[in-house]
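Appendix B, record 7
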Amino acid sequence: MAIGRTLAAARERAGLSVEEVAAATRIRRTLVANIENDDFSGCGGDFYARGHLRTIAATVGLDPAPLLAEFDAGRPDTAPPRASAVFESETAARPPRSGPNWSVAMALALVLVLGYGITSVLTGGPDRRASDGVTGAGRGTGSATAGVSPSSSPSPAPTNSAVARAPRDKVTVVLRARGTSWVRVTNASGRELFQGLVADRSVTFTDRSLVRLVIGNAGAVSLTVNGRPLGAPGKAGQVARVQFTPLDPAAG
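Structure tokens (predicted):
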């Protein structure tokens, strides 16, 4: 059975490590390595093994159908599936729920009511502030009126061309997936913005200076950068490494 060697070769062509495939698929690194050695004993049964094959194949840019057919043709019966032994935990342990503490809530409400009453007595209430005529709006109106000249005219509004020429303060990349591809996105400082599989949907990434992408299946996605469509960054199964700034794409 050459399934494992086929997956390993495709992963190497895609420029991915075993750790990167494990992170993208949420399959344990040791299990990914075992599958590349045609060892499916840790999958927990044929049902989960077929699911792992399908996910890993899509991540490294392979069509999973021939691999699944080869797997089904040569597999004996295996033990019942055990999901807890295969997948990583995706949710942290949650503390037991407890009911609302009504005593604390009532005490806080009482403190707020008493505080408001004391403040109203000391300041003379909202009516005194209104009658004094010292609101922020009143003072602002007086100073603004004194500075207006009858002969002054308003400045002309900026034209659309002037707005278009204004420099961008960020870069925006929209990735539309027509199939399935593994994608990793970082910014100029190396901070990871996204990592995982994208399938039949659109995702948007924004940064002030730079968006860098590693795309495992370049032919399955198209990119729009700062509002301009650029199309697919490569062919099906090809790994694309691209980056964009607020000035991209260049004019012309």
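Remarks on this record: The domain at 3-85 is CATH 1.10.260.40 (434 Repressor (Amino-terminal Domain)). The longest helix spans residues 102-123.
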